[in-house]
Every structure is written in structure tokens, then in C-alpha cells.
Amino acid sequence: MSTRASTLTGRIMSAPSIIVLFLWMAVPLGMTIYFSFLRYNLLSPGMEEWIGTLNYEFFLTDPAFFASLANTLLLVGSVLVITVVGGVLLGLMLDQPIFGRGILRLLVIAPFFIMPTVNALVWKNLLMDPVSGMFAWIASLFGLPAIDWFTNAPLTSIIIMVSWQWLPFAVLILLTALQSLDRDQKEAAQMDGAGPVAIFFYITLPHLSRAITVVVLIETIFLLTVFAEIFVTTGGGPGLATTNIAFLVYTQALLQFDVGGASAGGIVAVILANIVAIFLIRLIGKNLDK
Amino acid sequence: MGAIRLEKVKKSFGTLDVIPGVDLDINDGEFVVFVGPSGCGKSTLLRLIAGLEDVTDGKILIDGTDVANEAPAKRGLSMVFQSYALYPHMTVYNNIAFGLKMAGESKDVIDQKVQSAAKILNLTDYLDRRPGALSGGQRQRVAIGRAIVRNPAAFLFDEPLSNLDAALRVNMRLEITGLHQELKTTMIYVTHDQVEAMTMADKIVVLQAGRVEQVGKPMELYNSPANKFVAGFIGSPKMNFLGGELAAKHNCHEIGIRPEHLTVSTDRGDIAATVKIAEHLGAETYLHVEADGLGPMTVRATGEMPLGEHDKIFLTPEQDRIHRFDAHGLALGPS
């Protein structure tokens, strides 16, 4: 791409894909923005009319909005903490030369390949079910009463499931980062008199900071829109206990048939995601341009 | 104090004996260079002394105490790594201070020691920088600074100059030698470069396949190598080894003659040869020749030599500079 001609050719060649990608993103976004200013309910077709920002007012003043916003942040935050801490610890373990490491690594990665719906069904029916679930059986071995997870600790249950799903991703990224740590550095620290704990905090953790940033950024993007696990298990309940923004938008659109309100909710979700993203990049993104 | 003594130090990886058993005495304040071709075990031997590898058998005595089973930090040694192994996320100051911090020194003591080390190594202006923002030579100095502040019984250098370019290498070589004269601390230096070994060492240890081939002062190794390996390894260009009639005349299996101990003449001499390649360096000329009936030889002649390809020349070895070897490659001493 040195001459002007080759730069121009490059632009022309890449234009089609850029245009398609742009339309792919811009058209739905434009339509959603347009719908969000309409009274548009599927139960009363042909009655669409411009109502300005009324949809937004309804959505933002709805108590369900605040409850689901809190749930979203709690869900994202908890899963991030669990996966990053667990990912670092598991990564450290899998980095050691232990027996059966290859198979162990494969097993640890496996949950990531399971689709969210299946994951949720396995947890709901096989593990957390208060009658026939494995956790209930384990509790009964100790003579304890079974916990009805989805009734008594609904959001915690969702957090556990989603964490289980995302832990492998964190392990994968952090393990590769650990493997790239120069052995000489650890040995130099050893010569300097640092014990295993000091080496972890002064050498390993700083080395992992970039990888942790990547994990946090990527996971946040996906965790803001967790849907399948909630849909399959609790359906957002009991009450609003497990409704996050994504699920709230879904209930607006497809349970109340309010396309206008759902569009407004969708736009709000986009704005919220951007706020979180800007906040995150300000906070930790500087780790990336080292 | 830093007298180090190795007694039958042995290291095996599985069934492979990397170091079959080494005995070595290093006196306090000595600059010792371990030299040998790659894979000869010189780095392993250094790592055994440092404590980064466990010995399979034998004793490592530092000032009379056996430290073979002590943790690296307990041995009171500092190491400078080939890759420098600086901590990339710490400033130069913190890199140098890390060992002191781990030792639980107070802030004032740390500051004073770091500043004085930085002064010795000309790093004062760079203390706030991270290693990524330093040149190769500066990184090397930081690595040395990190070693100095701990006030070790001995410094261990693992090929510290091999990542630097040629000009910088010569500079750092002088700096390290100067540092040794200033600190008078024991230094063990590993290199595969015999020039570094010859120029820096008080004592050279030549290693091959985990075995010590010869220990001695640089000039001792140069003038009276114990065997063919040492003779070939020390000195550049390499010593010429000649067999056949010429060797028989000297009553041995093979003779060795250094390229600089051959006199070149265009009309008469002991060995007739044809020039293949002449390398003109100005101060000296390297002639790669094909000697009649003896094979390829190298000659190092002082000054300029107006010789080129296909020129016929005659070579005469300096008689008292001829090394004699037996069939096993051991030196026989002068005839």
C-alpha cells in the first residue's frame, strides 16, 4: 500500500464488504430507532403513529427497568469476578506439569462448546432440581434439606450457570498468557529472594494484566445480553428477580407485543452497553496499548 | 567473601548425564570464565551454582558451607541473565530495588543503595523509565544494577553480552572488567566466545560435554593447552592440526601450529602451499591456503600482504611454538 494507485485499489477492493457490513448494522439500528418513536403494538395493527419520546418515558420510569438494570450489573459483575479469579487459579494449575494435563485441559475447555440452552437445561434438570437434582441428592447424603435453587436463590443460580459457561474462556486466554511468561523472569525473582506468593503478585499477575483486560472486555460484551439461560430456567422470575435488560426487552416485545416500547428498551440497552464499554476502556483499556 | 568450591558436582536429566562430575576451586575475588561450545554444560553448571537447578550429586561450597540444597536466594549470589530478565512492568528503580524489597530492607536503605548503584552504572537519568524504553546496553546495565545492590558473595553472568551488537559488546566487556576491578567480588562468567574469555578472565575453565578440559590463566591455555580440544578452542583463527610425515618428524601423532606462528615467504620454507582466499584486514591478513599434501591451513600474517588466489607461498612454523599431540589428542609437551 505504498503508492497512491495501490491505496485506491485497496479501498475499492474492500469497499463491498465494508458497505455490506455497514448496511447490516445501520439498517436494523435505524429501524429500531424509528420504531422507538412510534406507538406500535402488534395487537392493534395499522394504528402506528408518531408519539415522540413517550416510549422512552414509559420504559425509563418503569420500576422493572431499574430492577433489571441492577440485575444486569450484578450478573455481569459477579460472573466477571468468578471467571477471572477462577480462570487465573485454574490457569496456574493447568500450567504446572501435572499428570494427565492434556486431557484435563480439554475437559476444562469443554463447557465453552456447550450451547447456552443445553447448559441451562443440564443445570436446571440434572443438577439444581430440588427433587431429582444431584445437588439435592448430595444434600440428602448429609441429611440436609434440598435447596430449591430457582426459588430461593434465583439470580445466584443464573450467575453460577453463566460462570460455568464462561470460565473456560477465561482459562483459555489466561493459560496462553501464562505460557508466554518468560521463565528467566521467574528465576530472576527467585534469585532476588521472592517466594511463590511474591512471584505471583509481583511477576505473574502484572504479566497477566493484559490478558485479564481482554477477558473482562470480551466477557462484558456478551454478559450484558445473557438471555438463553434466563429464558430456559426462571423466565425472568420469580417476579423480576432474574430479569435483566435483554430479557425485559424480550417481554416488552414478544409477551406484550409492544414493538415501540421494546425498540425504546433496545436503544436504551445499546446506550447502556456503550456507557459500560467507555467506562471499562477508560478504566482498564490503557493496559492494552503498552 | 566469595570462595566457591565444587566437589564432584553431578547433574543428570533422566538417564542423561549432562555433568558427570566436576571439581573446581574458585578463589575469592576471582574472575572466572566458563567457556565451551554450545551444549557443553557451562550454563547448566552456572545454574547449579545459582540454585536454579538441583544437583543430582555432589557438594557446592560457598565460603566453606555446603549450599547444594539451599534455595537460590539463600546462597547470596546474584545472576545476570542472557535475556536480562528485567521485570517489564516495573520502572528501572523498582527493578533494581526488587531484591532489597524482598529482603525487607527499609525504604531509606533501598533508596540509598539503588541511587549508588545507578550512579556506578550511569543509570541515574533512567530510573523512572520502564525496561521497554531502554536500549540493549542500558537494559544490560539495569540487570547488572539489580545484581550489584544485593551485595552478593559472587556474581553469575550467563552469556550476558550475546544479545548486544558487536560494538556495544566490546564496550560492555570493558565495563564489566572495570566493575570487577572496582568491586573485587568473585565473578563467574559463562560464554561461548573465546575472545571474551581471553580478555576478561583471571581463570578460564574450558568445558566440553560436561567435563572440565582444562583450568588455567588465559595465557597458560594459549601457550600450553592440555589437549587438542583446548588448543583448537582457544585462539582465533583456529590452530592448524597437521599429521603425517611432518608430525612423525616431531615424534608424535599430530602437531598443532597456530596461524600466527607461521612465517610466510614467497620463495622458500618448510611447507609449500597455494592461497585459496586472502582476507585483508589492514593490520593483518588471513590466508586460507591449501598446503601440498597436508590439506587446508590458515595463516595469520601481520600487515598487508599483496597475495591473492592461486599464489604459491611457503610457510615455516616457529619451531618452539609447535604443539605436539598423541593419538588421544593429549598434549605431549615440547620435544
UniProtKB/TrEMBL annotation, chain A:
Task: From the UniProt record, list the coiled-coil ranges.
Answer: none
Topology relative to the lipid bilayer, per the entry, is:
Multi-pass membrane protein
Q: What is its main location?
A: membrane
Q: Give the record's GO CC terms.
A: plasma membrane
Alphabetical UniProt keywords:
Cell membrane, Membrane, Transmembrane, Transmembrane helix, Transport
State the source organism's domain of life: Bacteria
InterPro entries, per the entry: MetI-like, MetI-like_sf
* Membrane spanning residue stretches: 12-37, 64-90, 102-122, 134-151, 158-178, 198-218, 230-250, 262-284
Q: Which Pfam families match?
A: BPD_transp_1 (PF00528)
The record's listing under Gene3D superfamilies reads:
MetI-like
Q: Residue ranges of the ABC transmembrane type-1 domain?
A: 69-280
Tell me where it resides.
Cell membrane
Q: Name one GO biological process term.
A: transmembrane transport
Q: Which PANTHER family match?
A: BLR7065 PROTEIN, INTEGRAL MEMBRANE SUGAR TRANSPORT PROTEIN
The family this protein is said to belong to: Belongs to the binding-protein-dependent transport system permease family.
- Write down what this protein is called: Sugar ABC transporter permease
| The organism of origin for this protein | Thalassospira povalilytica
TrEMBL record, chain B:
Single GO MF annotation: ATP hydrolysis activity
**Sorted alphabetically, which InterPro entries does this protein's record hold?**
AAA+_ATPase, ABC_transporter-like_ATP-bd, ABC_transporter-like_CS, ABC_transpr_MalK-like, ABC_transpr_MalK/UgpC-like, Mo/tungstate-bd_C_term_dom, NA-bd_OB-fold, P-loop_NTPase
Name recorded for this polypeptide: ABC transporter ATP-binding protein
According to the UniProt entry, the coiled-coil residues are none
Pfam families, A to Z: ABC_tran, TOBE_2
Which keywords label this protein? ATP-binding, Nucleotide-binding, Transport
- Tagged with keyword rRNA-binding: no
Q: What is the lineage of its organism?
A: Bacteria, Pseudomonadati, Pseudomonadota, Alphaproteobacteria, Rhodospirillales
Which domain of life does the protein's organism represent? Bacteria
What organism is the protein native to?
Thalassospira povalilytica
Alphabetical list of NCBIfam families matching this protein = PRK11650.1
Claim: ATP-binding is one of the keywords in the record: yes
Under the heading Gene3D superfamilies, the entry gives:
2.40.50.100, Nucleic acid-binding proteins, P-loop containing nucleotide triphosphate hydrolases
Q: Which residues form the ABC transporter domain?
A: 4-234
